[in-house]
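Look at one such:
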Amino acid sequence: MNAPLLSVRDLRVGFGAKPVVHGVSFDVAAGEKLALVGESGSGKTITALSLLRLAGDAQISGQALLAGRDLLRLPEREMRAVRGGDVAMIFQEPMTALNPLMPMGEQIGEVLRLKQGLTRAQAQSQAIELLATTGIPEPARRARAFAHQLSGGQRQRAMIAMALASRPRLLLADEPTTALDVTLRGQILQLLDDLQRQTGMAVLMITHDLNLVRRFADRVAVMERGELVEQGAVADVMGAARHAYTRKLLTSVPRRDLLEQTPQPGAQALVHARDLQVAYPVPRPGIRGWFGAGRFVAVQSAALDLLPGRTVGVVGESGSGKSTLAQAVLGLLPCTGALHIAGQAWQQPAMRNTPANLALRRKVQVVFQDPFSSLSPRLTIGQIVAEGLRVHSPGLDAGQCRARVIGILEAVGLAEPQFPGLLERYPHEFSGGQRQRIAIARALILEPEVLVLDEPTSALDVSIQQQVLALLQRLQREHGLAYLLITHDVEVIRAMAHDVLVMKDGAIVESGTVQQVLGAPRQDYTRQLVEAAGLSGGAGHANL
């Protein structure tokens, strides 16, 4: 047999006296797709970073032979040529990996100029082609955009384009589709497949998405607490897992555990919207821009009714207007049309904290996608959770405030006996799932009637996702909360939602109960979303 492109033997990584990767060994052949799976903290990402010696002050031993050259012992000068050349990496969080001061086209062009010697004009043209290849609409315009001007999925695709610019022999992909919706995941996987056929590129993919592993990888390696516990062909491992940890991952899927009561006739909607529209001013090109800005309609003619104790799921691709709709409901964006929260309208502009708007803010709270970036690293857990009380309940004394904080943390599964000094700890001392529980506690301490959930589990491992969804379902049953769930994950919609809105290009193209929309979709676009998630119409309906 031919020698593998990458051969890792007895890789050990530690920080100070603490080992985090314990003697990992695996091979990746040219043109092969190996998935490295496991929960947060299992050592997946640090293994990949160590191969490029990007793990900071880590102590690394073992071998990592790339076409016969040991990456762990190459001089730094040669490693610079390897990074972004023979081996490229797609990082998990595009907002922190992209330069906020450079347009996308310049960032991709920089790789092309350094690695392929292209001129600035050639690099810019090639960057636009790469952006188009990854599915970004209007690639020439997006090449002039900065990271903050793109959606999460568009930022991820721009970073993938940058990694693929030098046509690497080995691609290290750390959760490359986490921020992408189901149809774009399929497009990116197809793109990687096409590039492999053309160039023989190998892929080492770090992921917690087992559906992605089934669809994309040739082989899978499972890591737990720094050890490789099982590896083999995808069909063998997924079909007959030998290790208990692998079996645990395979059974960690979202489960539906909702109250399925029929809405009472005449029940008042906690969120009522009709003909809702959100528009942004945008610069117009050429001489027309001298006479005023243009107008981009992000949400058009939206209608929504969210009743107590029910969940409305909003699903669609990146840029479809889901998060913009959520921000309008939260009173964070100006809008036109009818929008009432518990029978009251936001005083426009809704961003102003008038007494009426402050009262509404208490009734509608939000849980964001990434708990690490949504929690202040400078505040303790006690300060974070109590922050809303200081604004909305200033009459509470310190003892009453502390008691409320302890009570709500216990309600989301975080108690002092389990976490000594809980209120004095900081967010970085908790896992991703625990941080999301803290974010939920921060929202619930004000006893809201509506909770907006903006991709609340997309950044979490499958087992942690299952725990957080179960927690949200329990809280809804116990407190009668209404959820507006924003997600691109059809599986999460199937587990959590009573009713579904499907959005495309700012418009709601289909709506109905979850059984109607996922079980018998009427629109081609909805069928594409369901099929891309690995669900057939009949199967989806039968499992509800």
In short: Residues 535-544 have pLDDT under 50 and may be disordered. The longest strand covers residues 294-306. The CA atoms of residues 380 and 425 lie 5 Å apart.
